[in-house]
């Protein structure tokens, strides 16, 4: 259902802070042509925390419209209030999305039981497959494997995006959740190794600007051609790391603008433009990856 190289898509803005739908269409076409296997619209990389509910739903709807059935679209529906995530799920029912990706609630640090009840409530209000998203480095809460296992018993919770970088969890999740539960990496630096150890793909920031390479690498890895996949990964490794030299998506939006993929690299406060000191580092990482 979900596998390969899925892009955690940036949300482009105009200089006056409005969503740039012209650039959004350009990005969708770019990923279709590059062979990406899916798009996450308005996830963390899409600056979901700074969009209004109306903007959030419209960006997802326009992404589905621009995709026009050529590539699956997964909607980011995460929030730190369960009722807000439930609202997104209800509003996006029958919208043409292929699934929802919900990050663990941030800042309020729920217990494992709270996390279980949060995701259960979301799943009960949605008519599409659900992907759990664990990124404790950003949320200050860790969705533990035992809780993932409980949630995997809910019919429409079908996958986990694991951005912990802890590869030892792959075997644990597989044992607890069964062979049909989908495991996706959310950490570009360890994404290939994640697939080598039994994962089905990666939801990627790097894919925003290295889409064709990421698609090829994941296709090779899933076919068991690890040496060829590793050659691509090594070329991208500096990019994987330096796209996080400042808070994501600051560096990747700057790089996408530099490539001409979006009209401008503006972000919404409290995020700010890539610093002057970081620009040569990202530029060199792009050069190392052979990206113009």
From TrEMBL:
Q: What are the protein's UniProt keywords?
A: Amino-acid biosynthesis, Cytoplasm, Diaminopimelate biosynthesis, Lyase, Lysine biosynthesis, Schiff base
The Gene Ontology biological process terms listed for this entry are: diaminopimelate biosynthetic process; lysine biosynthetic process via diaminopimelate
Q: Which parts of the sequence are marked as the site Part of a proton relay during catalysis? A: 44, 107
**One Pfam match, by short name?**
DHDPS
Instruction: Name the coiled-coil region(s).
Output: none
Q: Which family does it belong to?
A: Belongs to the DapA family.
- Active-site residues, Swiss-Prot/TrEMBL: 133 (proton donor/acceptor), 161 (schiff-base intermediate with substrate)
User: What does the record give under GO molecular function?
Assistant: 4-hydroxy-tetrahydrodipicolinate synthase activity
Pathway assigned in UniProt: Amino-acid biosynthesis; L-lysine biosynthesis via DAP pathway; (S)-tetrahydrodipicolinate from L-aspartate: step 3/4
Q: Which GO terms describe its cellular component?
A: cytosol
Q: What is this protein called?
A: 4-hydroxy-tetrahydrodipicolinate synthase
Q: What does this protein do?
A: Catalyzes the condensation of (S)-aspartate-beta-semialdehyde [(S)-ASA] and pyruvate to 4-hydroxy-tetrahydrodipicolinate (HTPA).
């Amino acid at each position: 259902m979900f596998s390969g190289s899925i892009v955690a898509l940036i949300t482009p803005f105009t200089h006056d802070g409005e969503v740039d739908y012209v650039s959004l269409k350009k990005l969708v076409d770019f990923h279709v042509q590059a062979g990406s296997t899916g798009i996450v619209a308005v996830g963390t990389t899409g600056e979901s925390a700074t969009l209004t509910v109306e903007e959030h739903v419209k960006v997802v709807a326009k992404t589905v419209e621009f995709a026009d059935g050529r590539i699956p679209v997964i909607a980011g529906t995460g929030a730190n209030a369960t009722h807000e995530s439930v609202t997104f799920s209800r509003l996006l029912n029958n919208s043409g999305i292929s699934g929802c990706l919900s990050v663990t609630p941030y800042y309020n640090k729920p217990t494992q039981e709270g996390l279980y009840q949060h995701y259960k409530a979301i799943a009960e209000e949605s008519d599409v497959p659900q992907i759990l998203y664990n990124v404790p480095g950003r949320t200050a809460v860790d969705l533990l494997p035992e809780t993932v296992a409980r949630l995997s018993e809910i019919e429409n919770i079908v996958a986990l995006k694991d951005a912990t970088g802890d590869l030892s969890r792959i075997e644990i999740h597989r044992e607890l959740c069964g062979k049909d539960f989908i495991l996706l990496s959310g950490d570009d630096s360890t994404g290939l190794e994640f697939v080598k150890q039994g994962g089905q793909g990666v939801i990627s920031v790097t894919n925003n600007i290295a889409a064709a390479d990421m698609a090829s690498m994941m296709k090779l890895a899933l076919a068991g051609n690890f040496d060829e996949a590793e050659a691509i990964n090594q070329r991208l490794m500096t990019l994987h790391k330096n796209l996080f030299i400042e808070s994501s998506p600051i560096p990747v939006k700057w790089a996408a603008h530099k490539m001409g993929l979006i009209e401008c690299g503006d972000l919404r406060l409290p995020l700010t433009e890539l610093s002057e000191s970081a620009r040569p580092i990202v530029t060199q990482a792009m050069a190392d990856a052979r990206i113009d």
